[in-house]
From TrEMBL:
Reaction catalysed by this enzyme: 2'-deoxyadenosine + H2O + H(+) = 2'-deoxyinosine + NH4(+); adenosine + H2O + H(+) = inosine + NH4(+)
Protein name per UniProt: Adenosine deaminase
Short name of any one Pfam family annotated for the protein: A_deaminase
Family stated for the protein in its record: Belongs to the metallo-dependent hydrolases superfamily. Adenosine and AMP deaminases family. Adenosine deaminase subfamily.
Known EC number: 3.5.4.4
GO molecular function list: 2'-deoxyadenosine deaminase activity; adenosine deaminase activity; zinc ion binding
Length: 366
């Protein structure tokens, strides 16, 4: 990796993460170890540094579809209870070491049944890994809470089943639902029955929308499907006119801003898939300045060679974000989390605010 460094302040800041794919954050050595154990022979490299580089370079293609092809290798080693458990536990440990105090980690159960596991067994193995990772991190002095979001793949046809699984495990570590995968050609309304079911069950969900496809996808996600949050949502800027002295919002972008619909933004991932041109020009800063409910996220730590600290540092270095901006985005994330309100408030008051106060940041001064 480059000589790019995360400052001591950003490293120490308490972090909240809403958009992180479990199958996009494996340690390279773990992929190699599990591949060896299960006899998976298709890995593109057998040295951890080479494999790490392969993921980053292959994901750096400018196309979401090509970016997603790299997941074949991570998903391949997440087909056993032991493999899923290890990946989930290490995810909790790695996030905790990065200063993340609350994370929602997502994955698609339907992608982990090729070795004969039921989707229930997949969820339980991942949950067990998160719980043990939390305990081990706490013992090392890093408090983290990790909750799961269950993703349905938008090109597949199992969304309703996975929505039901989400409800079944709602009191056991699963806090919401998502759809992911190639966006163009697979509008969210394809899975309307799943979203309507979740609404009837008073359950929460986010939808990847406005990443590789524009406003119609965002509009459907919100106005047809009832999404509580948007995964990426970066193309909402297409509904903001910045040609004049003051930016003017269209109906949809005003709806998103005024309704405080959270945007789970992932800068590095967007640069790799071509959804944004540079950190400096990434719409996240315009949206922050316009007071949309912006959050900062990793998406896929392995494919993007990133961490939550690195995403935040890029914004500081290249888009003039201050620590106060990072505190604001972190509180936005906690306000938007799918855990109960009282628990969100406790994390804000007991961890986020004191952590930033220790860095000398006590309020948001725009
Ligand atoms: O940025 C993204 N956009 C759309 N889909 C994604 C993105 N990152 C990962 N996945 C997809 O979500 C699945 C479950 O975690 C992954 O296997 C990948 O195919
Ligand atoms: Zn994503």
């Amino acid at each position: 990796m480059s000589e790019f460094v995360v400052s001591p302040e950003v490293a120490a800041a308490p972090k909240a993460l809403l958009h992180d794919h479990l199958d996009g954050g494996l340690r390279p050595q773990t992929i190699i170890d599990i591949a060896d154990e299960i006899g998976y022979r298709a890995l593109p490299a057998t040295d951890p540094a080479d494999l790490d580089r392969w993921f980053r370079e292959s994901a750096d293609s400018g196309s979401l579809v090509r970016y997603l092809e790299t997941f074949a290798h991570t998903v391949a080693v997440m087909q056993t209870e032991a493999g899923l458990y290890r990946v989930a536990k290490e995810c909790a440990l790695d996030l905790a070491a990065d200063g993340v105090v609350y994370a929602e980690s997502r994955y698609a159960p339907e992608q982990h049944v090729d070795g004969g596991l039921t989707m229930e067994a997949v969820v339980e193995a991942v949950n067990a890994g998160f719980r043990d990772g939390e305990s081990e991190a706490a013992a090392a002095g890093n408090t983290i809470q990790v909750r799961a979001l269950l993703t349905a793949m938008r090109h597949a046809a199992r969304a309703r089943e996975i929505a039901e699984l989400t409800v079944r495990y709602r009191d056991a570590g699963v806090v919401g639902f998502d759809i992911a995968g190639a966006e163009a050609g697979y509008p969210p309304t394809r899975h309307l029955d799943a979203f309507e079911y979740l609404q009837r069950e008073n359950s929460r969900f986010t939808i990847h929308a406005g990443e590789a496809f524009g406003l119609p996808s965002i509009w459907e996600a919100i106005q047809w499907c009832g999404a509580d949050r948007l995964g990426h949502g970066v193309r909402i800027v297409d509904d903001i006119d910045t040609s004049g002295e003051v930016p003017t919002l269209g109906r949809l972008s005003a709806y998103v801003k005024d309704g405080r619909i959270p945007l789970e933004m992932c800068p590095t991932s967007n640069l790799q898939t071509g959804a944004a041109k540079s950190y400096a020009a990434h719409p996240i800063t315009l949206l922050k300045d316009l007071r949309f409910r912006v959050t900062v996220n990793t998406d896929n730590r392995l494919m993007s060679g990133t961490t939550q600290g690195r995403e935040m540092q890029h914004l500081v270095d290249k888009a003039r974000w201050t620590l106060a901006d990072l505190r604001w985005a972190t509180i936005n994330a906690m306000k938007s989390a799918f855990i109960p309100y009282d628990e969100r408030l406790a994390i804000i008051n007991d961890q986020v605010k004191p952590g930033y106060a220790a860095l000398g940041v006590v309020s948001y001064v725009p």
